[in-house]
Design goal:
The protein is an alpha/beta fold. The chain has eight helices and eight strands.
């Protein structure tokens, strides 16, 4: 079986007790903690900043933190989130003046870089970056809000992205974000994804362990 990673998005967590929520979801079997960082400029919403990342590290969270920057410009926040303890930092190519420089900045700061494709962005947008990224995030909803429905055309984009990764010969994670739940996670994995961001499907469940175990069961049934 592929090395699948489940990455709960804290956008759907109870922020009044965020440390406990993260602790609970990691104890339930989550692999990575996902940050949806929105700036009310690149996207029409405002969420969290690097202080939250730093606070969770000080709280004792040692799991990888996956920071998805839905911001413009990106470089200043790359520096701040790297200092705050991020593991992965992904951003949208169109939000950076010089994509290669932003990718290199992430690397220089000791984090793992990645690029993000919006629903209408072609995989060609990242073709020339495959030699320098560690993660490719495909948005299966329009960025800006949690709780949206999965866009079906994402399956074909994931297949194209997986082919691009295979062609590169590099160990690049194929992450998907938006509307992931028990009903579609298996199909999404079959299309090539190996890292799954889920917000309301996990944090909205009565039992985090149960829903993550069910997701693992769905992933076990996938034959790539």
């Amino acid at each position: 079986m592929a090395d699948y990673l489940i990455a709960p998005s804290i956008l759907a967590a109870d922020f009044a007790r965020l440390g406990e929520e993260i602790e609970s979801v990691l104890d339930a079997g989550a692999d990575v903690i996902h940050f949806d960082v929105m700036d009310n400029h690149y996207v029409p919403n405002l969420t969290i900043g690097p202080m939250v990342c730093s606070a969770l590290r000080h709280y004792g969270v040692t799991a990888p933190i996956d920071v998805h920057l839905m911001v413009n410009p990106v470089d200043d926040l790359i520096k701040m989130f790297a200092d705050a303890g991020a593991t992965y930092i992904t951003f949208h190519p169109e939000a950076s003046v010089h994509v290669d420089r932003s990718v290199q900045l992430i690397k220089d700061l000791g984090c793992r870089p990645g690029l993000v494709l919006n629903p209408f962005s072609s995989v060609d947008a990242v073709k020339w970056a495959m030699d320098c990224i560690d993660i490719l995030l495909v948005m299966s909803v329009n960025p800006g809000y949690g709780g949206q429905k999965f866009i079906p055309r994402t399956y074909e984009k994931l297949r194209q992205a997986k082919a691009l990764i295979d062609e590169s010969g590099r160990d690049i994670r194929l992450e998907v974000d938006g509307g992931i739940n028990l009903e579609n996670i298996g199909s999404v994995a079959h299309a090539g994804a190996d890292m799954f961001v889920a917000g309301s499907a996990i944090f909205g469940a009565a039992d985090y362990t149960d829903v993550i175990n069910q997701m693992r069961k769905e992933l076990l049934s996938v034959t790539n």
